[in-house]
Each structure stands twice: as C-alpha cells, then as structure tokens.
Design a protein that fits this description.
34% strand; seven-stranded mixed β-barrel; globular; three-stranded antiparallel beta sheet; 14% helix; 3 helices; alpha+beta
Length: 215
Amino acid sequence: MSQVHPLGTVVDLWRYPVKSLAPECLDVARFDRGGIVGDRACAFFVTSSGHARTQRAYRGKENERLHTMRETHDAIELAATRGVAIDLRDHGPYFDLDPVSIIFDTWLRDGERLVGRNLEPLRYRPNIFARAANDFVRREGDLVDRILAIGDVRLRVTEPIHRCVTPSYDLETGESDPRVLEIIARERGNTMGIYAHVVRAGSVRTHDTIAFASD
C-alpha cells in the first residue's frame, strides 16, 4: 500500500445510534459497506395522523431540541409536548444520503470567520472531524470522487454536504441562531463537510492519518 501526502489527522469519531439524537464519541470505529457499524441504526418515525411527517422520520428539522436527547424515552416525551406521537424503529441504517460525513477543521474555522462566533463541529453531526495538515487548502468540492485512506478503510468522496437548519441550533439548549445558516448559505454555498461511501471496510482510530489512496 502507498499513500500520497497526508491531508490531515482524525481528531474525533462520532456515531449516532439513533438518528437525530445525541452521539457517541468513539476511539475506534469499525466501518462496513454501510458506514460506521451501528450508526443511525434506529430512527423515530411520526405516527400522528395528519402530521406533515406522518410515517416519515422525525428529525432535528422538526424539533430543535431533539439532538440534545440521549435517551429514547426523553425524545418521545419531547415530541409529545408538541402533540406529536413518534415510534422508534430499528432495521436501519437511516441516512439522508451517503453514510459517512467528514469535516476538516479548516472548513469549520472558515465558517467561524464568516459568522463571527464559535461553531462546534457537532452542530454539523459529522462522523469524522479532522485536523488538516498545515498546507491543506482544498475546499469540499476539490475532494469529490477522490478516495481517502484512513486506517485500513477506503472512502470515496461523493459530494459536498448542503446544510439544513439544524446547525443553527445550540448543542445544549436548542436555541436557534439563524445567522449560522444564513451566512454559510450565502458565503459558502450552504456547504460544510463532505459525504463519502465505503469502498473498503476496516477500522479507523483517532489520530489516524487521512491521505489520498493510491492503491
């Protein structure tokens, strides 16, 4: 196996056992062809009749505090305060698009410069948060169709991630700051991070190097 010049290093690995709920922080993540094993394995679906999301997933877009919940019973009670009945379903994974999401710190710092405030990476719910190499200057679109080598995993980058309202919610309170979405949309094409799918299964650890694969 050979690699070209490193792009960065894995700082954090996150898995979201229940879609839209709080994450688990991992030291080691096992990837199969469906992404991180156990990621988005379950999701809540709306069972209230007449709701705009009936029989569809109940997400952060529908409730700004959902991502602060760790226990499923708390999420059910939270939805009930708004008159919404939800049911937990397994047999996932439940992804919006591709199964792996990655953010480099340089992209986040760019967003912070534009917005003028701290932006925690978990606002964007990535699987991998990476510290970029000193000479890393690539934007999200520059990585599309490239294969990344991380540990013994290979990921093909599919597209930049176009963001919804969820990153504007405070991680602790759910309070919304609309500027987070408005400015990123205007100045960065509503983009923060990249999607990828798995082309070779394996394991990734914090501190693993990220590079373009040449094997």
